[in-house]
Amino acid sequence: MHKKVAVLVAGSWGTALARVLADNRCAVQLWTRNAAQAEEINTTHRNEKYLPHAELPKGIRATTDLAEAVQDAEAILFVAPSIAMREVAKLAAPYVHKDALILHATKGFEGESLKRMSTVISEELGRPEGDIVVLSGPSHAEEVVNRLPTTIVVASSDIARAEAAQDLFMNNTYFRVYTNPDQIGVETAGAIKNIIALGAGLSDGLGFGDNAKAALITRGLAEIARLGTAMGANPMTFAGLAGIGDLIVTCTSQHSRNWRAGSMLAQGLELEQVLEQMGMVVEGVRTTKAAHALAAKYNVEMPITDQLFSVLFQGSSPERAVGALMGRVRTHEIEEIASATPSKWLR
C-alpha cells in the first residue's frame, strides 16, 4: 500500500470508490458517523444497506473518528450528499494536510446558495476552487463495486491535480479515467442530469415508451448545456462522459435512484412517500429546486426542469406536465446552444 486516502462518507458511491482505491493498493480510511456500519465493514467486509452482497477488500478500514481518517491522508475524497457537504468539509478542515489532494464525487448544488460542491469545499478548507478535483461520469456504484468496466472523468482547472487524481483512480482492469479542465461543466452536467433522470422515470412509469424517453434525454441535454454554458462551461464537455455519458446511464437504468423515484411518482405516490421508501438520498429532487432558481438567475430557458419543479413542489400531475411540454410553441432544434455559447469557445 502506497497512499493513505480518506473517503468521506460510507454511502454507496463512497464505498464503491473506496473499493477502486483499495484495489489500487491504497490504504483507505472510510469515514461514517454510524458505529454499527463501521463495525460491519471492518468485521464482515460488507456494507449491506448501501451495496447488498458486495464483498469489500480488506484494504478498506471504516472509522467513526474523522481526525483518524483525515490526518496524514495524502488524498481526501468527499462523497457526502450535497445537503451535508459543507458540514462534513467544515468538520474535516482542521485535520487536512496542506499538501493533500482534495477530490469530490457528489452531484448536486448547495440549497439556498446554489453553489457547486467544489465552491463549498474550497470555502471550508480555505483553498482555491481550482485545487478541488471533481470526479464524475457514467458510473453506477453497484457496477463499480463488482469491478464491471467503467469510464469516468476527473476535472480541475489545475491539470497537474487532475492528472494526480487520474493516477490515483486509474485501474487498467475495470476503471478508466480521463482528465478534463472544465470543472464548471463537469459539475453542472453531473448535477442536472439527475433532474432529467427523474423525468425519464416519470415517462417510463406512465408507459410513454422509448420515443418519449429518447426525446427527453436529448432535450434534457440541451437544457444542461444551456445552463452550463451560461455559468461558464465549455459546451464540448456536454458531449463527453460527464454530459451525454452520465445522462444516458442515469436515465436508462433501474440502478438509478432518480429514475426509480420518478417511476414511483408516476405510480401516484406523493414525494414524501417516495423519499421514505427509497431510504437513500435522491439528489435530483433538491437539484430540481436549485436548477429552477439557477435558470432564473442566468435567464436560461429550462422547460423540462420547470415542469418537474411543478410536479415535485407545486402539486401538478405528471400528465399535466407532459401536456405542457408537448404544447410548447414550435421552435428550431439547434439554435439554443449556439446562441448561448460564449465566443471564447467558438475560436
Automatic annotation (TrEMBL):
Sn-glycerol 3-phosphate binds at residues 107, 137, 139, 193, 246, 256-258. NAD(+) binds at residues 141, 257. Keywords: Cytoplasm, Lipid biosynthesis, Lipid metabolism, NAD, NADP, Nucleotide-binding, Oxidoreductase, Phospholipid biosynthesis, Phospholipid metabolism. PROSITE patterns: NAD_G3PDH (PS00957). Its main location: cytoplasm. Residues 182-322 form the Glycerol-3-phosphate dehydrogenase NAD-dependent C-terminal domain. It is an enzyme of class 1 (oxidoreductase). The active site is at residue 193. Gene3D superfamilies: N-(1-d-carboxylethyl)-l-norvaline Dehydrogenase, domain 2, NAD(P)-binding Rossmann-like Domain. It catalyses: sn-glycerol 3-phosphate + NAD(+) = dihydroxyacetone phosphate + NADH + H(+); sn-glycerol 3-phosphate + NADP(+) = dihydroxyacetone phosphate + NADPH + H(+). Pathway: Membrane lipid metabolism; glycerophospholipid metabolism. Residues 4-160 form the Glycerol-3-phosphate dehydrogenase NAD-dependent N-terminal domain. NADPH binds at residues 12-13, 33, 50, 107, 141, 257, 281, 283. InterPro entries: 6-PGluconate_DH-like_C_sf, 6PGD_dom2, G3P_DH_NAD-dep, G3P_DH_NAD-dep_C, G3P_DH_NAD-dep_N, NAD(P)-bd_dom_sf. It is found in: Cytoplasm. Its EC number is 1.1.1.94. GO terms for biological process: carbohydrate metabolic process; glycerol-3-phosphate biosynthetic process; glycerol-3-phosphate catabolic process; glycerophospholipid metabolic process; phospholipid biosynthetic process. Substrate binds at residues 107, 257-258. Belongs to the NAD-dependent glycerol-3-phosphate dehydrogenase family. Catalyzes the reduction of the glycolytic intermediate dihydroxyacetone phosphate (DHAP) to sn-glycerol 3-phosphate (G3P), the key precursor for phospholipid synthesis. This is Glycerol-3-phosphate dehydrogenase [NAD(P)+]. The lineage of its organism: Bacteria, Bacillati, Bacillota, Bacilli, Bacillales.
